[in-house]
Amino acid sequence: MKNKIIAIIAICIFLATSSSRAIGNTQNPNNSVSSILAPLQHNQSLTGMTSSEVSFDGKVIKGIISNAIIKAYPVVEKNGTYQVDYTSPPLLARTKEDGGYQVKPSKRLNNRYFYIEMTTDSESKMMCDFHIGCHSILTGDYADFGELIPLPENFVLSNIVQTKAGKISNAPISPLTHLLVNYAKTLPKGLSSDNITKAKQYIEETFGLRDNALTRVPTDITALSKIDNLKEDDLYLGILSAAFAPYIEQQNWDDPNNLPLEKLFSYAKELTQFLFTQTSSGMHLKRLAAIETIVETQYNLAAAQLLQLRIIEHPQSVEVEVGSSITLSIVAEASDNLSYQWLKDNVAILGANSSNLAIENVGTTNEGSYSITVSNSSQSITSQPAYVTVTTAPAPSTRQGVSIISQPESIVTREGEFVSLSVGAVGDEALIYQWQKGGSIIPGASGDQLTFNPIQLSDGGTYSISVSNSFSSVQSDFAMIAVNTAIAPITITKPPSNTSVVEGGGASFSVTATGGGYLAYLWRKDGVALPNAYQAMYVISETNLSDSGNYDVVISNSVGNAISSTAVLDVIPIISPVTIQQHPVAQSINEGESLSLSVSTIGGGNITYNWYKDGIAIPGTDSSVFSITQATTADQGNYFVNVSNEVSNTNSHDMYLTVVPAPVTSSVLITLSWDIPTHRIDGSELAISDIAGYQIIYGTDTYLLDQTIEAANAQITSIDLDLIPGTYYFQIATKTIDGMQSQFSESVAVDLK
């Protein structure tokens, strides 16, 4: 828990001098910064080792953290719990410019676990790897993507690694390895080998990582252009580490049981999309595309869990004595009814279908991993595992004196907020509480909580509490309250304006905004972040046509962000005047024929056309070609076309279209007649009641009779036709009521004049 607040404590000390007790981890007597740095030179390992048979090699990436202090402590077993041995002199090193470090335990420490801790001091710096820049609320420093930024002193990241005889152990340090360590610490028996394995599996499953991915070094995403053989796992680790940027100065950011997964994967999505703009390598783009799919999947899973079924409180691991009783429980919520199923070692427990699991008279067979699947009408989720450890030795006797079970935690806040410090303590008899500030008693502050509503700037300082009963007393750790001036939200007073410019000219957008603290700017085009566009003004010194689009700016400070209205940039191309190279020519056609009039032009920009007949514009003729199908005498007349672009306008030569009327021909009326058939083809009789009607086909070509007449009555024996003069050929067939049809008769030719 103390590692979670160390960055906050350190910053408060930087702002206001305090005692050495306030800056250290009280469990670590070797954590005095002055005692560590006095003999330590940059990029030098002071290990005191006698052999180089084993070593830890790693990098610190959240981005790259250079000139940070590395301390390696052995993990030891004490009273059945595996913990960091802070009494042992640490192996020391400083990280190099690329974040790399090496420490070498002596060979007698082979096959041992080491806790490796990175802490920062005034000389430590981080390469900003967050796409919208890095802003420290505690120090006020700011850096763009790919720039160095000072880190708060005593910011902590960690990992836990096992030495291997004759080998170099990979020991990368990142926010993910730090979460692994913190998760293992919450399990019974602490940093045991089994718990470290369980913690690795939990972090890998939570973030969608492959097996053993946490042994790999995250990619420095600010230097993609310098990496030839980019690995997908390394790049994904680098993006995830960078996504923690907005959280690392928040209290309890490294609590593995309370991670803002939806927001983390949202930032990872934005980072991945931003990195597409930072590389042109086909391999890099392929890796980013794969990671974009992974991040989208993890984001959807996190969002679904957040918006629908959600576990609020997971079951907790416990160590219990044989014969005792325990109850495991879960707290979950959803919009409809929930059902439960407890599992032991991933096997369903019959009848265990409530939110609580009570185990009476615990035996060694009850030891194992317990989890619970919670379901509603649409989904199911499974809790984190809770490990039940059963001991056969009697539990240690209860201490009679006062014991603090939860320490007050340091807080960074703003004036006007509600703030509360609290302590948890146990002991016989009634407990007496007394809060102090800076070592002085606070009158009336005699409860287990100390509240400020609202908190003032003058309330900042170092607080502790003494807890006592009639025969014992204990003092809590110090907790620092840092009160910052209230920060006003962002208000955009003057958004960017629309602008147009001729291709090649310069263009700029600017925005005016008010708000507290440091204002960070990020300009976007068509919703995509622009590189190196982090000022209140965005300038394009020489525009291209591709620069046309919709621009806006996202302005952020420590309390939120604001997005401007959209401003449109219209880049006008350099345009040459339009010239007609080939004019339409006069034509003569027969009525009923078709034709096309056309014009050939050259010129820049957007060329438009409009055809005219007898001086009147013809609607819908915006084309270099004007077509007439089945001309009539009404189409005859004088035609020309107007051609224009953004800078010019010209007319074609006139052309006259002549439409020759079609000759008028008179028609001839003829009567076709036939006899009603009485026999079928096979000679059998055909009754008139069996006849459905007749089909007559005819045409002017004996091989193409393409006209059809249907006579749907058996009694009909003639039909009149009005035809234009010419030679015609006729055939007839009989249809029966059962759907059959006879063959057509031989053709009969008729010459009409």
Question: What percentage of residues falls in helices of 4 or more residues?
Answer: 10-25%
List segments where confidence is low: pLDDT < 50 over at least 5 consecutive residues: 1-52
Give the number of helices.
8
CATH fold call of the largest domain: Immunoglobulin-like
Kindly give the count of domains: 6
Major pleated sheet: 6 strands, mixed
Shape: elongated
Structural class: mainly beta
Describe the structure.
There is one protein chain. This protein is mainly beta. It folds into 6 domains: 32-221, Immunoglobulin-like, CATH 2.60.40.1120; 311-391, Immunoglobulin-like, CATH 2.60.40; 403-484, Immunoglobulin-like (Sandwich); 491-572, Immunoglobulins (Immunoglobulin-like); 579-660, Sandwich (Immunoglobulin-like), CATH 2.60.40; 668-752, Immunoglobulin-like (Sandwich). The chain is built from 8 helices and 59 strands. The strands form 18 sheets. Strands 15, 18, 19, 21, 22 and 23 form a 6-stranded mixed beta sheet that branches. Strands 25, 28, 29, 31, 32 and 33 form a 6-stranded mixed beta sheet that branches. Strands 35, 38, 39, 41, 42 and 43 form a 6-stranded mixed beta sheet that branches. The radius of gyration is 43 Å and the shape is elongated.
